[in-house]
UniProtKB/TrEMBL annotation:
Organism of provenance: Trichoderma lentiforme
Gene3D superfamilies: alpha/beta hydrolase (3.40.50.1820)
Alphabetical list of InterPro entries matching this protein: AB_hydrolase_fold (IPR029058), Cutinase/axe (IPR000675)
Protein name: Cutinase
Compositionally biased residues, Low complexity: 227-247
Start and end residues of each stretch annotated as Disordered: 227-275
UniProt-listed Pfam families: Cutinase (PF01083)
Lineage: Eukaryota, Fungi, Dikarya, Ascomycota, Pezizomycotina
GO terms assigned for molecular function: carboxylic ester hydrolase activity
Signal peptide: 1-19
Keywords: Disulfide bond, Hydrolase, Signal
């Protein structure tokens, strides 16, 4: 099953004939994951979170975004990531209306996520359009951490940072993000070399340790909210999100089966391989190259 999801994502990402491939609709959550720079192909450390989420939301699928995730040609890599993520989301959204999607991204993958949802951050990045409302209606949670286009002091910001990230995000794009504020959590801590424009790489590697449980709880509760109000299958059409709705009483969602699909096979996520020291030092090396590249561009 893992092979199936993986080959679907590969096809979707790398082929212009992607539209021909029909995704399998998940009864639970369809989790699209964009890994961080220089992490090996797959979900990267974020797989730790998606496996916990999948354990709590049965019949979920985890699909990694297939993109280079390189630092040396960051703009192109990031742009490829946005194309691949938007293709996955569009294909799935069209094939599986009314189903529930979560987007997770770390570091470069966090920018891939925010650019996909909100449209391009702006120069020097490729001018991607934001996702359509139609598909976004199915997206119940967007959980990102260490986004280099982090904008400080927004309602969906989490963590200790009060500084903007290394790259700007245009105000038009921020406005688009704000439409989905209740579904987004964006973590950034003080000192993070990317999202806080700081100088501490270690901070950039600590989000899962520090906030993993919160992130998992958020995604699961967003999923549960989106299904518990929907005893009438119409709920997704008009009020896709019980966003500001304080239905705090719920939760026990006995009626939580989504009114969507026939049981789709669960794709069990890859076991988190763990952030290892090798990756860290690779990232540090790549970082210098990236910073040089960036300063040349600006
Ligand atoms: C965010 O808010 C804090 C506290 O009000 C402030 O010190 C900081 O300058 C703000 N950051 C930005 C980027 O505006
Ligand atoms: C980011 O935006 C600010 C304010 O709009 C601008 O002054 C600055 O030059 C921009 N920085 C980059 C790197 O584009
Ligand atoms: C970087 O952050 C980590 C984690 O908070 C901290 O332990 C370490 O002392 C920091 N390093 C520097 C040079 O500030
Ligand atoms: C769904 O909502 C629309 C618009 O509010 C309404 O016209 C329609 O009757 C509803 N359908 C069901 C099945 O409740
Ligand atoms: C689901 O909700 C309906 C109406 O709210 C109720 O009649 C039914 O018993 C519930 N089913 C379960 C399994 O809780
Ligand atoms: C991910 O999970 C594995 C196995 O549960 C664990 O060994 C590893 O430390 C975790 N990595 C992170 C970054 O939390």
């Amino acid at each position: 099953m893992r092979g199936l999801a993986l080959s679907l994502s590969l096809l979707a990402a790398s082929s212009t004939a992607a539209a021909a491939t029909q995704p399998t609709c998940a009864k639970g959550l369809y989790m699209v994951v964009a890994r961080g720079s220089e992490e090996p192909a797959g979900t990267g450390v974020t797989g730790n979170l998606t496996s916990q989420i999948a354990a709590r939301v049965p019949n979920s699928q985890v699909v990694p975004v297939d993109y280079p995730a390189t630092l040396s040609d960051y703009e192109d890599s990031e742009g490829d990531g946005v194309k691949a993520m938007q293709t996955l989301l569009n294909n799935y959204g069209q094939a599986c209306p009314g189903s529930k999607i979560a987007i997770l991204g770390y570091s470069q993958g966090a920018q891939v996520s925010s650019d996909s949802v909100c449209g391009s951050a702006g120069e020097p990045f490729i001018d991607d359009k934001a996702m359509s409302d139609e598909v976004m209606n199915s997206v119940v949670a967007i959980a990102i951490f260490g986004d280099p286009t982090h904008v400080a002091n927004l309602t969906y910001d989490r963590g200790t940072s009060v500084k903007d990230g290394l790259f700007n995000r245009s105000s038009a794009s921020v406005d688009q993000c704000k439409k989905y504020a209740s579904r987004i959590i964006s973590y950034c801590d003080k000192g993070d070399i990317y999202c806080d424009s700081g100088s501490n790489l270690t901070v950039h590697h600590l989000y899962i340790d520090r906030y993993g449980d919160e992130i998992v709880d958020f995604v699961v509760s967003q999923y549960e909210k989106s299904t518990s109000t929907g005893s009438g299958s119409n709920a997704t059409a008009t009020a896709p999100f019980p966003t500001t709705k304080p239905t705090s009483g719920g939760g026990s969602g006995s009626n939580s089966t989504a009114p969507t699909r026939t049981g789709a096979p669960t794709t069990s996520p890859t076991k988190g391989s763990g952030a290892n020291m090798l990756t860290s030092s690779l990232m540090l090396g790549g970082l210098l190259a990236a910073l040089t590249a960036v300063s040349q561009m600006l």
